[in-house]
Structure formats: structure tokens, C-alpha cells
TrEMBL record:
Pfam families for the chain: Pkinase
Protein name: non-specific serine/threonine protein kinase
SMART domains: S_TKc
Gene Ontology molecular function, alphabetical: ATP binding; protein serine/threonine kinase activity
Phylogenetic classification of the source organism: Eukaryota, Viridiplantae, Streptophyta, Embryophyta, Tracheophyta
Sequence similarity: Belongs to the protein kinase superfamily. CK1 Ser/Thr protein kinase family. Casein kinase I subfamily.
SUPFAM superfamilies linked: Protein kinase-like (PK-like)
């Protein structure tokens, strides 16, 4: 039996699942456009889809924010229909043998800081910054990073009065322990500085291949969180960023110097990485590590020039490849289909 949602979205096959419920491929029966459909049981203990749909509405129009196409309740499910996107940065990291080049990390950093800055400008913290929550677009948007999963997002200030939420302690850890800020581990209420510190851990994870507090053995979840927290606090920034450009150390020192209510200087952080990018002689050509693996002819021509700049005959850049790069991927197949 065909399931049609909101009178125009046909439910297709399942393409993923998580704590929120299940994710399906769908199609707009009027236009033929493929979409992503998120389903959550109305009986779930901690429903978040309705809240998340409100966040999508508040953030609409921002670069790298998926378009909310429909939200409603049908039968036993809360249902949200959004843009179908490509693979997550975690998927791509695995595809690239769990290491990204400095060039790829710097091209990503610029967009990632922009996405976090935009959420903050709308009065919200993300509170679960991790590679799985950043997805690449499809087709013409294949080089654009999207920020997803707003289930843990929190309003940190009133948009009219700009009044900031109060400082509090003894908070439970919200988010993913691997990327949580030191203050979050210490039970301090999160603010803008914490999203940015988490982003720093994501960048180092991409560069290093792993973080020093990964793979720690513990009996319970609480013990594991405590071990991660301890290891994180005992690892100096200089050790974490050892043998990588000093800009990464500067990034962390800046984030950790911010007070609870401080507005971060996002431009300073972007400038740190942009200046490094230029100094390294890289070309902002959207040739990421996965582009080179999927389209070796682009990579070889890019690498044959000292600056990493593609030769004039290198063929189309990834930005101009207009056909969808395997819509069926979402979580798995994007890079194996043409």
C-alpha cells in the first residue's frame, strides 16, 4: 500500500534511524522531487520532532539550513518532511579512511563556523555539534554544508530584549561526550562558547583521525563520561594540537577564554583559518578529499600544480556537477553511485 503524507509526499524506503525515530526517502507526487521524511512515534518517551520542526521554521532562509516542507501528525506518527541531503561529514570521513587533509579541514571550518554563527544569531545554541550533524548537499549544492538535528537546541537569549539565560551549574551532560566542552563536562550551563569549543574538537578529530579520549573502557555510561572528562582536562591544548598549525591552538585558547555571556568574535576565528589557507597556497576550489576519491581526474590535475589549483583543463569542479550524486545515499550510497 502506498503511504501518502500531507496529501503530497509518498513514503519510500527506510534510509536511516536514530534516537529520534526513523528516516525515509520520499517523493513529492506533484513535482517528483525527492525528500527526506522523519517519523517519530507519538508514544515515544521524549518526543522532539515537534520542537525540532519549530526550530526549522525559525531558522528558515539561513544558508545551510534544510528547508522544512511539511510537519504534522498522521496516525501514530509525528512526521517532518525536509530537503533530502547528501552524506554526513562522519560518512565522508570514513570514506576517506578516517583522515582529512588540512585543505579539506580548512574549507570545512569556514562553513562550519558560519553555520554555528547563524544559529547563534537566531538566538539558539545547537548543543550537539558533531560530524554526524553536518551533511553535504546534493547536485548543485554538493559543496554546501548543512547543519541538522536541532532536537537538543536551546534558546540562550530573548530575540527582542537580548536577555541571556542565567549562569547555572550542576547540569547533566547534554550532547555527545566526545565533542563536549570542558565546561559542559563540569556541569556548567552551555552558551555560545561551548558550541565553538565542540567545533574545535571536530576539526582536530578530522585532522588527527581520532581524539585522545576515544576508546576508553568503562563499566557504565557515567564512568565513561567521567573518564572522557578527565582525559580531556588532562590533555593540554598544545598536546592536542601538536604538529598541526598553531592556528588550531589559538582557536581553542580563544574559545576557552570566553566568559559565559560573551559574544564570540566569529570573524576572528574565520580569519585565523582563512589566513592559514592562503599562506599554505591552497585554492578555495571545493575540491575536497572525497571529490578526489570520487573524481580522480579532478584530484590529479589539482595536485599537479604547486598551489593545489586545478589546471584550466581539469574538467568541471564539483561545484558545477549538476546531476545528483546518487540521491539514494543519504547515509550509505552517495559515493558509490553516479
Amino acid at each position: 500500500m502506498d503511504h501518502v503524507i500531507g496529501a503530497k509526499f509518498k513514503l519510500g524506503r527506510k534510509i536511516g534511524s536514530g534516537s529520534f525515530g526513523e528516516l525515509y526517502l520520499g517523493v513529492n507526487v506533484q513535482t517528483g522531487e525527492e525528500v527526506a521524511i522523519k517519523l517519530e512515534s507519538v508514544k515515544t518517551k521524549h518526543p522532539q520532532l515537534h520542537y525540532e520542526s519549530k526550530l526549522y521554521m525559525l531558522l528558515q532562509g539561513g544558508t545551510g539550513v534544510p528547508h522544512l516542507k511539511w510537519f504534522g501528525v498522521e496516525g501514530d506518527y509525528n512526521i517532518m518532511v525536509i530537503d533530502l541531503l547528501g552524506p554526513s561529514l562522519e560518512d565522508l570521513f570514513n570514506y576517506c579512511n578516517r583522515k582529512f587533509s588540512l585543505k579539506t579541514v580548512l574549507m570545512l571550518a569556514d562553513q562550519l563556523i558560519n553555520r554555528v554563527e547563524y544559529m547563534h544569531s537566531r538566538g539558539f545554541l545547537h548543543r550537539d555539534i558533531k560530524p554526524d550533524n553536518f551533511l553535504m548537499g546534493l547536485g548543485r549544492k554538493a559543496n554546501q554544508v548543512y547543519i541538522i538535528d536541532y532536537g537538543l537546541a536551546k534558546k540562550y537569549r530573548d530575540l527582542q530584549t537580548h536577555k541571556h539565560i542565567p549562569y547555572r551549574e550542576n547540569k547533566n551532560l547534554t550532547g555527545t561526550a566526545r565533542y563536549a566542552s570542558v565546561n559542559t563536562h563540569l556541569g556548567v550551563e552551555q552558551s555560545r562558547r561551548d558550541d565553538l569549543e565542540s567545533l574545535g574538537y571536530v576539526l582536530m578529530y578530522f585532522l588527527r583521525g581520532s581524539l585522545p579520549w576515544q576508546g576508553l573502557k568503562a563499566g557504565t555510561k557515567k564512568q565513561k563520561y567521567d573518564k572522557i572528562s578527565e582525559k580531556k582536562m588532562l590533555t593540554p591544548i598544545e598536546v592536542l594540537c601538536k604538529s598541526y598549525p598553531s592556528e588550531f591552538t589559538s582557536y581553542f585558547h580563544y574559545c576557552r577564554s570566553l566568559r559565559f555571556e560573551d559574544k564570540p568574535d566569529y570573524s576572528y576565528l574565520k580569519r585565523l583559518f582563512r589566513d592559514l589557507f592562503i599562506r599554505e597556497g591552497y585554492q578555495f576550489d571545493y575540491v575536497f578529499d572525497w571529490t578526489i576519491l570520487k573524481y580522480p581526474q579532478i584530484g590529479s590535475s589539482s595536485r599537479s600544480r604547486p598551489s593545489g589549483k586545478p589546471s584550466p583543463n581539469a574538467g568541471p569542479s564539483a561545484e558545477r556537477i549538476e546531476r545528483p550524486l546518487g540521491l539514494s545515499f543519504y547515509l550509505q550510497f552517495w559515493l558509490y553511485e553516479d
